[in-house]
Amino acid sequence: MNKLETETKQWLGMPLNLVWGYLAIALFMTGDGFELAFLSKYITDLGFTEAQSSSAFAVYGFAAALSAWISGVLAEIITPRKTMIIGFIMWCVFHVLFLIFGLEGKSYPLIMLFYGIRGFAYPLFLYSFIVMIVQNVKSTQISPSMGWFWTTYSVGIGVFGSFIPSL
């Protein structure tokens, strides 16, 4: 009997064996929401134009879109867990580089480079978790499990990510 033939323990449809991943998604998205509340203005306050600030977000978005596709492919090749670890490490490293050399150093090329690579990193974590959900729950549990994914995503970016900057 494989693990998918047995019922996964759950709470209101959330598979408890994946609870750490849901918490990580909420945390990641809280950071994104927090960042969206002030980063554009901060970049312009550093002396860059609104167009330059917008371009940084466009590069981030393009990198995230590309990574969203690659994350599924990579998760199938090397496992979702390894892909998530790569994404997490990349995100941490390039976030620090973005803060120190891009923002603190007021270097537009380094803002673009490090923020873009950081944008590439987070979907490796985030969307590989979707593959992990599909691989670790019964087919009858995929819908509520994905509902929890989008709930934690939305609570992170829309609730905590918006509320924390208001403090």
Radius of gyration: 18 Å
The string of secondary-structure elements, in order, is EEHHHHH
Poorly predicted ranges (pLDDT <50, ≥5 residues)?
A: none
Round the mean pLDDT to the nearest integer and report it: 90
Keywords:
167 residues, mainly alpha, two-stranded antiparallel sheet, 5 helices, 2 strands, globular
Describe this structure in words.
This protein is mainly alpha-helical and 167 residues long. It has helices at 19-45, 50-78, 80-104, 108-136, 142-166; strands at residues 10-11, 14-15. The chain has a two-stranded antiparallel sheet. A hairpin with a 2-residue loop joins β1 and β2. α2 packs antiparallel against α3, α2 (50-78) packs parallel to α4 and α3 packs antiparallel against α4. The radius of gyration is 18 Å and the shape is globular. It starts with 9 loop residues before the first strand and ends with a helix. The model has no long low-confidence stretch (mean pLDDT 90).
Task: Give a brief outline of the structure.
Helices cover 81% and strands 2% of the residues.
Question: Which helices and strands, and how do they pair?
Answer:
Elements: E1 10-11, E2 14-15, H1 19-45, H2 50-78, H3 80-104, H4 108-136, H5 142-166
Antiparallel strand pairs: 1-2
